[in-house]
Specification:
- It is a single chain.
- The protein has 10 helices and no strands.
- It is an all-alpha fold and about 260 residues long.
- Helix 2 crosses helix 3, helix 4 crosses helix 5 and helix 4 runs parallel beside helix 6.
- It is globular.
- The N and C termini lie far apart (about 85 Å).
Length: about 260
């Protein structure tokens, strides 16, 4: 005869298991396995990571469909392959070298700029943004009947996804226009340069929003998009008549950080 009700699963010790607690216990093991694979290049799928980078710039929704597939097959939302992080590091190094050339920095200045971009602009800011949104999502955006939670690793992956198009726009495409156009005291210089910033930051917010809205156990994720976008639009509109060139400000800041003045 079948039992009238199913008893909760038990652990090897005979006590009822807690799936959420077990998930938290295995999260550290998953991140350790992820970090351990960083130097094992033969085990990385660089072709797929390049595909993700391309589609983050043209159709980011397709990238997050793969995150759903990973959850179904490997029971985790976050990446388990560090190939994307390795390629992003390459782009950070290459773009920082280009920026150092445009700023006419010394070799030591270039190294300082590279360290700042990697450990502050990308990782440092990413840790703060990912932790803040991870907390907000789990605390305020959960559906009432949800027994899942946002993985911190997934929150950081969302930041890396959103950071890549921003990096390409501001540290690669923009470089070709700094000397001939953007680094001038013309209105058109501010308009063009600040519009690039508007596009880059808007893309960052949109891809971040897609990352959280794609999780089926979150609701009202639009609050992550509209308030921040309104603030960015306000700064953009105000900057044009008051003569605030965002790129010139960034160049001054980078020179200040590396101790190089022109």
């Amino acid at each position: 005869m079948l039992p009238s009700r199913l008893s909760p699963p038990t652990s090897p010790t005979g006590t009822p298991s807690n799936p959420m607690l077990e998930a938290r216990h295995t999260a550290g093991a998953k991140r350790y396995k992820y970090l351990r694979r960083i130097l094992k290049f033969r085990q990385m799928d660089f072709e797929f990571a390049l595909w993700q980078m391309l589609y983050l710039c043209v159709a980011p929704q397709r990238v997050y469909r793969n995150f759903h597939y990973r959850k179904q097959t490997k029971d985790q939302w976050a990446r388990d392959d560090p190939a994307f992080l390795v390629l992003l590091s390459f782009w950070l190094c290459a773009s920082s070298l280009g920026f150092a050339i445009v700023l006419q920095l010394s070799v030591m200045g270039m190294i300082k700029l590279l360290l700042w971009v990697i450990f502050v602009d990308c990782i440092g800011v990413g840790l703060m943004v990912a932790t803040l949104l991870w907390f907000i999502a789990n605390k305020y955006l959960q559906t009432q009947k949800s027994d899942q939670e946002v993985e911190w690793g997934y929150a950081f992956d969302v930041h890396l996804n959103a950071f890549f198009p921003l990096l390409i726009i501001l540290h690669v495409i923009q470089l070709f226009f700094i000397h001939p156009l953007i680094d001038k005291e013309w209105f058109m210089s501010r308009l063009f340069g600040n519009t690039l910033w508007l596009i880059a930051l808007g893309y960052y917010l949109y891809i971040t929003f897609l990352g959280y809205s794609s999780l089926p156990f979150l609701r009202h994720t639009v609050v992550l998009l509209y308030p921040a976008m309104l603030i960015i639009l306000t700064f953009y509109i105000v900057s044009l008549p008051v003569g605030w060139n965002f790129t010139q400000g960034l160049m001054w800041f980078y020179r200040y950080r590396v101790g190089h003045y022109v």
